[in-house]
Amino acid sequence: MIGRLRGRLEYRGIDHILIDVQGVGYIVFCSDRTLATLPGVGEAVSLYTDLLVREDLLQLFGFTSLVEKEWHRLLMSVQGIGAKASLAILGALGADGVGRAIALGDWKSVTVAKGVGPKTAQRVVLDLKDKAPGVMAMGAHARGETPLRAPTDEVIEPAARASKPAGASHSAQADALSALSNLGYGPSDAAAAVAEAAGALPEASEADLIRAALKLLAPKG
Fold it and tell me: Which part of the chain is the DNA helicase Holliday junction RuvA type domain (predicted)?
């Protein structure tokens, strides 16, 4: 499995690039949003990658962050969402936008992606809503890392991260608060919800706190 590529950008196409890694050229498909962030031809580039393996096809897809890669993996698990549709959704909304739409049940936002209709968008939100807090926690944790540990230097996949000690720590609460703020909730409402969730779930992880706080913040009635 190819999880990351670092090399020189040799060519830029409409929906893909060619990365030269020590003399070997890799064609990597990317979303419009990712393509817009990449450097110019001839410059160094580093992307997380996901390899699609089929009987008659091998394709690499590139992402600027592990959070974006994780959303691609989850989107691909939804019936009716292939690689092209996943990249269209990520290109239209970005990783944070996808998390916001799914966590809030805003399926209409997902329909802005080319080729994604209302029924498919609703399925995306329904199938992935319970998984959104975990990815949001990953994103909040990544935003809180020091500059010395830039995303392009991260080598540990999400599933291989070391387990954190039990307990709704200040760090877990801070990351949960960051994720809720990123969804657009006001600081006071988000802080109150996280505090209440932490009090009710003293051994909660970041994802558990986010999930519980979202339930507390959901409209009543």
Answer: 1-62
